[in-house]
Specification:
Layout (H helix, E strand, L loop, with lengths): L8 H6 L16 H11 L13 E6 L16 H18 L4 E4 L9 H10 L4 E6 L11 E6 L6 H11 L14 H10 L2 H18 L5 E9 L11 E5 L6 H8 L1 H29 L1
Parallel strand pairs: 1-2, 1-3, 3-6, 4-5
Antiparallel strand pairs: 4-6
Bound molecules: zinc ion (ZN).
Length: 284
Protein backbone atom coordinates (compact mmCIF):
# COMPACT_ATOMS: atom_id res chain seq x y z
CA UNK A 1 0.00 0.00 0.00
CA UNK A 2 1.66 3.16 -1.25
CA UNK A 3 -0.49 5.27 1.03
CA UNK A 4 1.12 3.84 4.13
CA UNK A 5 4.69 3.98 2.91
CA UNK A 6 6.89 6.03 5.16
CA UNK A 7 9.45 7.70 2.93
CA UNK A 8 12.73 8.08 4.74
CA UNK A 9 15.97 9.50 3.46
CA UNK A 10 17.47 6.03 3.53
CA UNK A 11 14.63 4.74 1.40
CA UNK A 12 15.02 7.55 -1.10
CA UNK A 13 18.74 6.97 -1.33
CA UNK A 14 18.14 3.24 -1.70
CA UNK A 15 15.75 3.98 -4.54
CA UNK A 16 18.44 5.91 -6.40
CA UNK A 17 17.92 9.43 -5.13
CA UNK A 18 21.28 10.96 -4.37
CA UNK A 19 19.96 13.50 -1.93
CA UNK A 20 16.38 13.91 -0.90
CA UNK A 21 15.88 17.09 -2.84
CA UNK A 22 18.43 16.60 -5.63
CA UNK A 23 16.74 14.14 -7.89
CA UNK A 24 18.49 12.77 -10.99
CA UNK A 25 16.64 14.04 -14.05
CA UNK A 26 15.40 10.56 -14.98
CA UNK A 27 13.66 10.41 -11.65
CA UNK A 28 11.36 13.36 -12.20
CA UNK A 29 8.20 11.32 -12.38
CA UNK A 30 4.74 12.06 -11.18
CA UNK A 31 4.25 11.53 -7.49
CA UNK A 32 2.30 8.32 -8.04
CA UNK A 33 4.98 6.85 -10.29
CA UNK A 34 7.65 7.86 -7.84
CA UNK A 35 5.77 6.24 -4.99
CA UNK A 36 5.45 3.06 -7.06
CA UNK A 37 9.19 3.12 -7.75
CA UNK A 38 9.87 3.57 -4.08
CA UNK A 39 7.53 0.76 -3.18
CA UNK A 40 9.30 -1.57 -5.62
CA UNK A 41 12.60 -0.77 -3.97
CA UNK A 42 11.38 -0.73 -0.42
CA UNK A 43 12.30 -3.42 2.04
CA UNK A 44 9.89 -4.17 4.82
CA UNK A 45 10.30 -1.37 7.33
CA UNK A 46 11.24 -2.17 10.89
CA UNK A 47 8.37 -1.52 13.21
CA UNK A 48 9.00 1.79 14.93
CA UNK A 49 8.90 1.92 18.68
CA UNK A 50 8.35 5.07 20.67
CA UNK A 51 10.35 7.09 21.26
CA UNK A 52 12.35 6.44 18.10
CA UNK A 53 14.96 8.90 16.90
CA UNK A 54 14.92 12.09 18.82
CA UNK A 55 17.68 14.14 17.34
CA UNK A 56 16.77 17.78 17.13
CA UNK A 57 18.74 19.84 14.63
CA UNK A 58 19.06 23.52 15.41
CA UNK A 59 20.04 25.77 12.54
CA UNK A 60 21.36 29.18 13.58
CA UNK A 61 20.85 31.35 10.49
CA UNK A 62 23.62 32.95 8.45
CA UNK A 63 27.24 33.09 9.71
CA UNK A 64 30.73 33.93 8.50
CA UNK A 65 30.69 36.28 5.53
CA UNK A 66 26.88 36.39 5.69
CA UNK A 67 25.94 38.56 8.70
CA UNK A 68 22.20 38.21 8.09
CA UNK A 69 20.23 41.31 8.97
CA UNK A 70 22.08 44.13 10.70
CA UNK A 71 20.05 45.77 13.45
CA UNK A 72 19.24 49.45 13.75
CA UNK A 73 22.01 49.78 16.34
CA UNK A 74 24.43 47.43 14.62
CA UNK A 75 23.60 43.97 16.01
CA UNK A 76 24.26 41.12 13.59
CA UNK A 77 21.48 38.58 13.13
CA UNK A 78 24.06 35.77 12.82
CA UNK A 79 25.30 36.41 16.39
CA UNK A 80 21.81 36.58 17.91
CA UNK A 81 20.83 33.37 16.09
CA UNK A 82 23.90 31.46 17.31
CA UNK A 83 23.63 32.67 20.91
CA UNK A 84 19.95 31.72 21.15
CA UNK A 85 20.58 28.34 19.50
CA UNK A 86 23.29 27.56 22.06
CA UNK A 87 20.88 28.45 24.86
CA UNK A 88 18.12 26.28 23.39
CA UNK A 89 20.58 23.40 22.95
CA UNK A 90 21.61 23.76 26.59
CA UNK A 91 18.00 23.69 27.80
CA UNK A 92 16.98 20.76 25.59
CA UNK A 93 19.97 18.67 26.63
CA UNK A 94 19.45 19.52 30.31
CA UNK A 95 16.07 17.74 30.09
CA UNK A 96 17.86 14.51 29.18
CA UNK A 97 15.26 13.79 26.51
CA UNK A 98 16.99 14.94 23.34
CA UNK A 99 20.14 14.77 21.34
CA UNK A 100 20.82 18.16 19.85
CA UNK A 101 23.06 19.00 16.93
CA UNK A 102 23.63 22.37 15.32
CA UNK A 103 24.31 23.12 11.67
CA UNK A 104 27.00 25.51 12.90
CA UNK A 105 28.56 26.08 16.30
CA UNK A 106 30.78 28.98 15.30
CA UNK A 107 30.79 32.02 13.07
CA UNK A 108 31.10 30.22 9.76
CA UNK A 109 29.22 30.40 6.47
CA UNK A 110 27.16 27.34 5.49
CA UNK A 111 25.12 27.22 2.26
CA UNK A 112 21.40 26.63 2.77
CA UNK A 113 21.26 23.25 1.04
CA UNK A 114 24.21 22.02 3.07
CA UNK A 115 22.25 22.82 6.24
CA UNK A 116 19.52 20.44 5.08
CA UNK A 117 22.11 17.78 4.29
CA UNK A 118 23.66 18.11 7.74
CA UNK A 119 20.25 17.46 9.30
CA UNK A 120 19.73 14.43 7.07
CA UNK A 121 23.21 13.13 7.77
CA UNK A 122 22.42 13.15 11.49
CA UNK A 123 19.01 11.51 10.98
CA UNK A 124 17.34 14.49 12.63
CA UNK A 125 13.64 14.16 13.36
CA UNK A 126 13.02 17.88 13.71
CA UNK A 127 14.72 20.86 12.08
CA UNK A 128 14.45 24.32 13.62
CA UNK A 129 16.03 27.22 11.77
CA UNK A 130 16.57 30.28 13.97
CA UNK A 131 16.61 33.83 12.65
CA UNK A 132 15.98 37.47 13.48
CA UNK A 133 15.72 39.12 10.11
CA UNK A 134 14.81 42.62 8.99
CA UNK A 135 11.68 43.96 7.35
CA UNK A 136 11.21 47.19 5.41
CA UNK A 137 8.70 48.41 7.99
CA UNK A 138 10.69 49.17 11.13
CA UNK A 139 7.54 49.30 13.24
CA UNK A 140 6.80 45.61 12.75
CA UNK A 141 7.95 43.58 15.72
CA UNK A 142 7.38 40.18 17.29
CA UNK A 143 8.20 36.54 16.65
CA UNK A 144 6.79 34.53 13.74
CA UNK A 145 7.04 30.96 12.48
CA UNK A 146 7.40 29.77 8.90
CA UNK A 147 6.85 26.46 7.12
CA UNK A 148 7.51 25.43 3.53
CA UNK A 149 5.00 26.04 0.75
CA UNK A 150 5.23 26.50 -2.99
CA UNK A 151 3.58 29.91 -2.75
CA UNK A 152 3.97 32.56 -0.05
CA UNK A 153 1.18 33.22 2.43
CA UNK A 154 1.58 36.99 2.07
CA UNK A 155 3.78 39.66 0.49
CA UNK A 156 5.84 40.24 3.63
CA UNK A 157 6.67 36.52 3.86
CA UNK A 158 7.51 36.38 0.15
CA UNK A 159 10.03 39.16 0.70
CA UNK A 160 11.38 37.45 3.82
CA UNK A 161 11.89 34.14 1.98
CA UNK A 162 13.61 36.02 -0.86
CA UNK A 163 15.99 37.57 1.65
CA UNK A 164 16.68 34.32 3.49
CA UNK A 165 17.16 32.35 0.27
CA UNK A 166 19.54 34.97 -1.06
CA UNK A 167 21.98 34.05 1.72
CA UNK A 168 23.51 31.69 -0.85
CA UNK A 169 24.70 34.64 -2.91
CA UNK A 170 27.65 34.53 -0.51
CA UNK A 171 28.41 30.99 -1.65
CA UNK A 172 29.45 32.01 -5.15
CA UNK A 173 28.24 30.73 -8.53
CA UNK A 174 28.94 27.02 -7.92
CA UNK A 175 26.04 26.68 -5.49
CA UNK A 176 22.39 27.56 -5.50
CA UNK A 177 21.86 25.57 -8.69
CA UNK A 178 18.34 24.39 -7.99
CA UNK A 179 16.16 25.42 -10.92
CA UNK A 180 12.67 26.85 -10.33
CA UNK A 181 11.19 23.69 -11.88
CA UNK A 182 13.08 21.47 -9.46
CA UNK A 183 12.14 23.74 -6.58
CA UNK A 184 8.50 23.40 -7.58
CA UNK A 185 8.73 19.61 -7.68
CA UNK A 186 10.55 19.56 -4.38
CA UNK A 187 7.80 21.48 -2.71
CA UNK A 188 5.28 18.96 -3.99
CA UNK A 189 7.48 16.11 -2.85
CA UNK A 190 7.51 17.19 0.73
CA UNK A 191 5.62 14.26 2.08
CA UNK A 192 2.30 14.54 3.75
CA UNK A 193 3.66 13.40 7.11
CA UNK A 194 6.51 15.88 6.95
CA UNK A 195 4.07 18.66 6.09
CA UNK A 196 1.77 17.71 8.94
CA UNK A 197 4.71 17.52 11.36
CA UNK A 198 5.97 20.93 10.29
CA UNK A 199 2.54 22.48 10.71
CA UNK A 200 2.16 20.87 14.13
CA UNK A 201 5.53 22.18 15.28
CA UNK A 202 4.60 25.68 14.02
CA UNK A 203 1.37 25.45 16.00
CA UNK A 204 3.22 24.30 19.13
CA UNK A 205 5.67 27.18 18.76
CA UNK A 206 2.87 29.74 18.65
CA UNK A 207 1.33 28.20 21.77
CA UNK A 208 4.63 28.27 23.64
CA UNK A 209 5.91 31.65 22.43
CA UNK A 210 2.71 33.65 22.74
CA UNK A 211 2.74 34.04 26.54
CA UNK A 212 6.49 34.75 26.53
CA UNK A 213 7.19 37.22 23.72
CA UNK A 214 5.21 39.45 21.35
CA UNK A 215 4.11 37.70 18.15
CA UNK A 216 3.29 39.05 14.71
CA UNK A 217 -0.39 39.06 13.74
CA UNK A 218 -1.08 35.72 11.98
CA UNK A 219 2.20 34.38 13.36
CA UNK A 220 2.31 31.15 11.30
CA UNK A 221 3.15 31.87 7.69
CA UNK A 222 4.62 29.98 4.77
CA UNK A 223 6.80 30.40 1.66
CA UNK A 224 9.48 28.63 -0.37
CA UNK A 225 12.35 28.74 2.12
CA UNK A 226 15.22 26.66 0.72
CA UNK A 227 16.42 25.67 4.18
CA UNK A 228 13.07 23.97 4.94
CA UNK A 229 13.13 21.61 1.95
CA UNK A 230 14.05 18.30 3.57
CA UNK A 231 11.42 15.87 2.30
CA UNK A 232 11.56 13.70 5.40
CA UNK A 233 12.24 16.03 8.35
CA UNK A 234 9.52 18.29 9.75
CA UNK A 235 11.08 21.74 9.47
CA UNK A 236 10.23 25.21 10.72
CA UNK A 237 11.94 28.57 10.58
CA UNK A 238 11.51 30.88 13.54
CA UNK A 239 12.02 34.62 13.27
CA UNK A 240 12.56 35.37 16.96
CA UNK A 241 12.00 39.06 16.32
CA UNK A 242 13.22 41.57 13.77
CA UNK A 243 16.55 43.35 13.71
CA UNK A 244 14.78 46.17 11.89
CA UNK A 245 12.75 46.95 15.02
CA UNK A 246 14.54 48.80 17.80
CA UNK A 247 12.69 47.03 20.64
CA UNK A 248 13.17 43.55 19.17
CA UNK A 249 16.84 44.20 18.55
CA UNK A 250 17.40 45.51 22.09
CA UNK A 251 15.55 42.51 23.56
CA UNK A 252 17.48 39.92 21.56
CA UNK A 253 20.77 41.47 22.65
CA UNK A 254 19.88 40.62 26.26
CA UNK A 255 20.80 37.12 27.56
CA UNK A 256 17.72 37.03 29.83
CA UNK A 257 15.44 37.58 26.84
CA UNK A 258 17.22 34.90 24.82
CA UNK A 259 16.81 32.50 27.76
CA UNK A 260 13.07 33.26 27.74
CA UNK A 261 12.79 32.72 23.98
CA UNK A 262 14.75 29.46 24.22
CA UNK A 263 12.61 28.26 27.15
CA UNK A 264 9.46 28.86 25.11
CA UNK A 265 10.94 27.04 22.13
CA UNK A 266 11.90 24.13 24.37
CA UNK A 267 8.29 23.91 25.60
CA UNK A 268 7.22 23.72 21.95
CA UNK A 269 9.68 20.87 21.29
CA UNK A 270 8.33 19.06 24.37
CA UNK A 271 4.74 19.49 23.19
CA UNK A 272 5.68 18.31 19.71
CA UNK A 273 7.22 15.06 20.92
CA UNK A 274 4.52 14.34 23.49
CA UNK A 275 1.93 14.48 20.70
CA UNK A 276 4.17 12.42 18.38
CA UNK A 277 4.50 9.69 21.01
CA UNK A 278 0.72 9.62 21.49
CA UNK A 279 0.29 9.24 17.74
CA UNK A 280 2.75 6.32 17.63
CA UNK A 281 1.10 4.70 20.65
CA UNK A 282 -2.37 5.10 19.12
CA UNK A 283 -1.36 3.50 15.81
CA UNK A 284 0.70 0.71 17.40
ZN1 LIG B 1 17.78 35.30 8.65
Amino acid sequence: MVRNLVVTRRLLVGAGVKATYLLPSGFLLGEGAMAATLTANARPAKRQTAPARRLVMLDPGHGGKDPGAIGVSGTYEKHVALATAFELKRQLEASGRYHVEMTRTRDVFIPLEHRVEIAQHHNAVLFVSMHADALKDQHVRGASIYTLAATASDAQTRELARRENSADRFAGPALGNTSPEIAEILASLVRRETRIGSARMAHDLVGALSPAVPLLPNPTRHAGFVVLKAADIPSVLVEMGFMSNRQDEAALRRPDHRIRVAAAMKRAVDAYFVAANHAVAASG
